[in-house]
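REVIEWER CHECKLIST
Item 1: Sequence provided? yes
Item 2: Single chain? yes
Item 3: Sequence as submitted:
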Amino acid sequence: MFGRGLSAYNVVIVLEFILAVYSIALALSTEKKVLKIVHIACCVLWVVLAVMNLITA
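Item 4: Structure as written out by the authors:
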């Protein structure tokens, strides 16, 4: 990733954390309660997947 010699496995973990941060930003910027819940649920999903990838590394 970016010429640093990271494996594809590590890139996936980084991208999952980026998506989690993006989901939090979407949850904070939306007005509707249902969309806030959906974005927070997506954030939790991305964090769980990233942690699972870290554990199985």
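Item 5: Key structural point noted by reviewer: Residues 33-55 form the longest helix (23 residues).
Item 6: Recommendation: ____
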